[in-house]
């Protein structure tokens, strides 16, 4: 079921882009994630600095309002201070708990002024990778986790965007998961995103 939803999301974006370029707008985006985990059962953790990248398609409803579906790869999780008293592993100063998702936000886009828009809406997120990386500054250290975090997360996203006349835009966004990362643990994903994109 998860794969079918993901495939349908990509098809929907592709169809939206192909229908009529003078009515629909299609673009790409990417940037920096400052991700962390919140909740009563979350440990004392620092944010994980990583990336996000994906595709956007804007469907104008009126001059001031649009619907914007997206498909985004978002690297999330958190960072934990390393403890290696016995020098058993060659660890860095920090260990990353890496939770990477394919996110499918469906944003309402309200134009506040020429080029400036407020965006908010639900996000349907699908886990694609879960790892512990005890050496995040090198190519080694990845430990895959199988049957760990929940495969699906329902969340929300909200932020501001400014688009220039040439199609380039800058964007800031806050994302939050409403679904627990683990069923019996009060811990939730969140991230602050800052990035750029281009609409064709």
Q: How would you describe this protein?
A:
The chain has an 8-stranded antiparallel barrel. The protein has one helix at residues 2-19; strands spanning 25-38, 48-60, 65-81, 94-113, 116-133, 142-144, 152-163, 168-177, 188-199. It has one domain: Porin, CATH 2.40.160. By secondary structure, it is mainly beta. Helices cover 9% and strands 60% of the residues. The longest helix has 18 residues, at 2-19.
Q: What labels describe this entry?
A:
single chain; 200 residues; mainly beta; Porin; eight-stranded antiparallel barrel; 9% helix; 60% strand
Task: Name the helix and strand elements from N-terminus to C-terminus, one letter apiece.
Answer: HEEEEEEEEE
Here the CATH topology equals Porin
How many discrete domains? 1
Number of strands: 9
Put simply, the count of helices is 1
The largest sheet, given as strand count, sense and whether it forms a barrel, is: 8 strands, antiparallel, barrel
Rounded average pLDDT: 85
Portion in helices:
under 10%
Portion of residues in beta strands equals over 45%
Shape: elongated
Order of strands side by side in the largest beta sheet? Answer: 1-2-3-4-5-7-8-9
């Amino acid at each position: 079921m998860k794969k079918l939803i993901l495939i349908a999301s990509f098809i929907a974006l592709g169809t939206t882009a192909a229908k009529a370029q003078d009515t629909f707008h299609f673009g790409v985006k990417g940037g920096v994630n400052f991700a962390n985990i919140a909740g009563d059962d979350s440990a004392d953790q620092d944010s994980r600095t990583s990336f996000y990248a994906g595709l956007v398609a804007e469907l104008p409803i009126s001059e001031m309002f649009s619907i914007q579906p997206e498909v985004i790869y978002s690297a999330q999780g958190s960072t934990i201070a390393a403890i290696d008293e016995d020098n058993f592993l060659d660890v860095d100063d920090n260990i990353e708990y890496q939770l990477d998702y394919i996110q499918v936000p469906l944003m309402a886009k309200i134009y506040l002024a020429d080029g400036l828009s407020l965006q908010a809406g639900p996000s349907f997120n699908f886990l694609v990778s879960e790892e512990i990386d005890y050496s995040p500054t090198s190519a080694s250290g990845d430990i895959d986790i199988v049957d760990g975090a929940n495969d699906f997360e329902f969340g929300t996203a909200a932020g501001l965007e400014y688009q220039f006349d040439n199609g380039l835009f800058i964007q800031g966004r806050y994302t939050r998961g409403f679904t627990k990362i683990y069923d019996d643990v009060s811990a939730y994903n969140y991230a602050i995103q800052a990035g750029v994109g281009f609409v064709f």
